[in-house]
Every structure is written in structure tokens, then in C-alpha cells.
Specification:
Elements lengths: L5 H11 L15 H16 L3 E4 L5 E5 L4 E11 L12 H18 L4 E8 L12 H6 L16 H10 L6 E3 L7 E7 L4 H5 L3 E7 L1 E10 L3 E2 L11 H19 L4 E3 L3 E4 L5 E2 L2 E10 L2 H18 L5 E10 L2 E2 L2 H13 L4 E6 L4 H5 L5 E6 L15 H19 L1
The structure holds glyoxylic acid (GLV) and manganese (II) ion (MN) (3 copies).
Length: 405
Amino acid sequence: MQLVSDELISRLRTINQFSGNQIGQNRLVYSPTWVKGQQQLIKWGLAAGMAVTVDAYGTVYLDVIGSQSPNGIVATGSHMDTVVHGGKFDGLYGVVGGFQAISNLVAALGRPKKTLRLISFSEEEGSRFPATFTGSKHYARVADVHDIVDHHGISFDDARQKAVAKLQFPGVNTGLPALPDSFTELHIEQGPRLVNQHLQIGLVTSIVGQRRFTVTINGVANHAGTTPMADRHDALLLASSLINRLAIIARTISRQLTFTVGELHVWPNTANVIPGKVTFSVDTRHVQKAILDQFETTLRSEIQKVAVAPFSVSVNRWVNDQPTLLDADMLRQNDRWARKLGLSTAIFASGAGHDSEIMSRVVPTTMIFVPSIKGISHAPEEKSTPADLHAGVALLQESLKHQTY
Ligand code: GLV
Ligand code: MN
Ligand code: MN
Ligand code: MN
């Protein structure tokens, strides 16, 4: 059976080229580059004779209908969106790699007994709107999005409807397909473990829980030259001391608790005006809910302490995703297929969030990681070797074959 195909690399390149000369990949959900990515996938699916469905959130489903049990569905896939200035593989590798694995199987073995489904989720990153995993949450029927806007004031519903309308090609079905019997997500590791240990495949036991907050500090804007230092209420100075304090607290709660302030907005953001308002994000993750609870309680009490008039400080939690165990039997099976293919494996928990944590709430779910060079991800330098990318597809293909033929 043909396991390695240059089609994989060329398909990745085709979709990545839609970001043009921008820094890194910018397929924010419902943006023009995202639309082109999902359109391209639909075209490949139609050309391959697959049944194509698009749901109301813009998630694309490509099915090879099973010859004996068409309602038994084995699904694989990942997400089409990226972070701002993201890499070439986060999400897209699982989409294109899944398409490749299914295409290879059909080319080698013909129609499967059960239905093989490739899913390209609309959104996972939470980088445009204040919500994460909106594609898989919609498909898994666990949550829908209401009344949120992006930084430009564009509503989720408006952006969604306009973008999804552009995916309605002739031959494309609309609706929300049935849930599958299992889900396997192929993904780059996004961390350094596999490269450091010179291993080819990561098998994922669990996914960290994550919470994201926006903290808003209102101070008093005033003249930078005339306001005495003792009379200032500088929102940025307060934010920076609060951020430092929270970073230290996070470290003392648990060395495995991650703490990131990746977004900061300053008003009026001018050199000669004391900042009157600041907002910043907090992203925190851990495998134990109790640790996340402890951090959140401390965050709220630290905010109360510094909210002394005329300062006012508020916090809005907009992500609360629980730590998740993935399917142990599927992991064991994949470990077995990996050995059969001569691939070395490591078994560990994921510090990144994935659609798999949502899918695992409704169906047995597993993940396959391949090494990320230097462990870099969510950056333009994100890279994996073609050999490792092919190895991940080979393992996915073996796993899908055993589930469907
Ligand atoms: C999304 O990729 C996340 O893990 O933040
Ligand atoms: Mn991802
Ligand atoms: Mn990501
Ligand atoms: Mn992620």
C-alpha cells in the first residue's frame, strides 16, 4: 500500500499560499483566507467523489460512504483556522493529513465497509472572537455561540453567515451530520518532547483544562508632562504590577500551571498621555480542575485588592474548558499499529487545546502527534519534517483501515 505521498506537502502548500505575503498564516475564522481554505477542501472532496456537507458554522465534512454500514461513521480531522501570524501546520496538518489518509485507503482498497469522514472544523483557536472550539462544540451539540463580536465590532453571526454562504457550491449538502462512532485527530505536537527524545509519534492521554479571562483596568488619563507623579492613576502601571504578581502566584500554585498574558490594549495609546484604560488577556492551563479553581479564586482576590478608587478593575472569564481524558483503548490500538509500522512512540498529555477535547465528550476520541522542530508553534517558524508528517499520516491510515475495512 502506498503510504507516502507528495500530494500531502503540495496540498498543505496550496492552502497555506492563500495567506500570500503576510507574516505567517492568517486564516482567522470567516476571514477571506479561511473561506479560500474551506473552498479548496470542498473542491478536492467533490473531485474525489466524496459526499460534501457544510454546516451552519462552516465546518466541512467529506464522506466516503460505507458499502456495508453507511451509518457507521469513522471520523478524522482538525481545524482550518489559525492564530494571528500562525504556522503552516497547526490544524491544517490534521485536515490535509486526514484527507490524504482517506484518499490513500480508497485508492489502495476501494470503498470501505463503514463510512470514512474527514472533518475540517471551522474554528478552534479563539483568536478572532472571544470563544474557542466553536466548530466542534456545534458539531458535538455541546454549545452554540451567541452575541459576541470581534475587535472590529463585527458580530459572530454576521461574519459566519456571510462566510458560510461562500461555501455553498453546487453538489454541496447543508445541515448538521450525525455524530461518528469515533474521532481521531492528527496534529503537530506544538512542544519539544518528541524532538528532544528523537521519537516519531506522540499518543495523547489527556488534554489540559484551560481558562481565559479579560481583565479591564480603568484609571485616569491625564497630561504626561504636567500631572505630578504622586497624583497619577496610571492604568498601565497598575496592569504591569498586577501581571507580574499573577505570574509569581501562578508559579507558586503549581509549576505545571501555565500563565500567559498575550494581549494588551492601552488607551489612548499615545506617548504623552497617562494611560487611562488597559485591558489584558490571561490564558491559564493545567491538567487538574482544582488547580485552575485555585488560580481563578486568587486572580479575583488580587483584582479586588488593587481596585481602589479612582481605579476600577473587572474580570470577564470567556473560556472555561475542563481537563479531558481521551480514549485509552484507541490509544493502545494506535500504539500497536505504530509498532507494526516501525514507528517509535511516546505517551503524554497535551498542553495545547484541541477539538478532540470537545469530541471526546460525545464519542471515543484519540490524538496522534508528530514532532514540531524546536517545539515551536503558534508562530510562523512552526515546522515539521516531511518524513514525520508522512509517518503521522501512515499511522492514521492504519488506524482508519482497521476501523472501516
Ligand atoms: C489553541 O490552539 C490553543 O491551544 O490555544
Ligand atoms: Mn490546533
Ligand atoms: Mn493552535
Ligand atoms: Mn490548539
